[in-house]
Write a structure and sequence with these properties.
about 230 residues, alpha/beta, six-stranded parallel β-sheet, two-stranded antiparallel ribbon, 10 helices, about 15% strand, globular
Length: about 230
C-alpha cells in the first residue's frame, strides 16, 4: 500500500498519543504520583517517562527523587491507577479505526510497538474493537529494550511481521522514538497530538511525513481509488 508516494509492505504503530487519545491518563497518574509523595510536579520527569517506559521509568523515579521504594511497587501503583481508564475510557483518535480497516483491506500486516504494558494495551484495544487487526504486539518491557531510546522494539516488530524494516512505515508522536524509528530505515510518519511532550515543530523535522489526523490519509486513499 502507499502512504503518500511511498509504498510500504507493513505498518508499525505506537499506541499512546499516536493511535489513541490517551495521554490525559498519564497526566492524571503523574499528578497523583507527585501529590502522594509531596514532591513538586517535575516536567522533566514526565517527559523522560514518555520515552523510558515502565521499568526504566520506575528506576529513574527512584533515583531522581531518592525514594525508599521498590521500582516494582511504583509500577504496580501506576498500572492500578491507569487500568480503569484504559479499559473503559481511552478511545482511538478520530479516523484511526477507519484507517486500520483500510490497511487491512489492502492486506497490509500491522503491529504495535509500545512502551505501554500489555495489561493496559490489550483492554484498550478490545474496548475499541481493534485487537484482532494487529498481527503482533511488541511491548518494550517484555523485550527489555529500555524503552524507545533505541530501535530494538521496531526491529522486532518488523521481524515478527516478516518484513524488512526499510519496507515498513512507523507511526509515532514523540521526537525520541521517531528518531529511533528513523534508524531502522523505515518511512516514519509523525501524528499530531496536543500533549506537551510532542514538541511538534521538532518532530516535523525528524519524520518523513507529518499528519494532523488520520482523515488526511483516508482522503489520500480515496483519491487514489478514483
Amino acid at each position: 500500500m502507499f502512504i503518500g508516494t511511498r509504498e510500504v509492505d507493513a505498518i508499525i504503530f505506537d499506541f499512546d498519543g499516536t493511535l489513541a487519545d490517551s495521554m490525559w491518563v498519564w497526566n492524571e497518574v503523574d499528578l497523583q504520583f507527585f501529590a502522594k509523595r509531596s514532591i513538586p510536579f517535575d516536567r522533566e520527569y514526565v517527559e523522560s517517562f514518555a520515552v523510558l517506559g515502565f521499568e526504566a521509568g520506575a528506576d529513574f523515579a527512584v533515583e531522581k527523587f531518592h525514594l525508599n521504594e521498590k521500582p516494582e511497587d511504583i509500577i504496580a501503583e501506576w498500572k492500578a491507577a491507569a487500568l480503569d481508564s484504559y479499559s473503559t475510557q481511552v478511545m482511538l483518535k478520530p479516523g484511526a479505526r477507519e484507517y486500520l480497516k483500510y490497511c487491512k483491506s489492502c492486506g497490509t500486516p500491522l503491529a504495535i510497538a509500545t512502551s505501554l504494558q500489555r495489561n493496559l494495551l490489550v483492554p484498550a484495544l478490545k474496548n475499541n474493537e481493534v485487537l484482532g487487526m494487529f498481527d503482533t504486539l511488541c511491548i518494550c518491557d517484555e523485550l527489555h529494550t529500555g524503552g524507545k531510546s533505541n530501535p530494538k522494539v521496531y526491529l522486532e516488530a518488523a521481524r515478527r511481521l516478516g518484513v524488512d524494516p526499510t519496507r515498513c512505515a512507523i507511526f509515532e508522536d514523540v521526537v525520541t522514538p521517531a528518531q529511533s524509528a528513523k534508524q531502522t530505515g523505515a518511512y516514519v510518519v509523525g501524528v499530531y497530538d496536543e500533549h506537551k511532550q510532542q514538541a511538534t515543530d521538532v518532530l516535523k523535522t525528524v519524520v518523513d511525513r507529518f499528519v494532523n489526523s488520520y482523515q488526511e490519509l483516508l482522503d489520500e486513499a480515496e483519491q487514489r481509488r478514483e
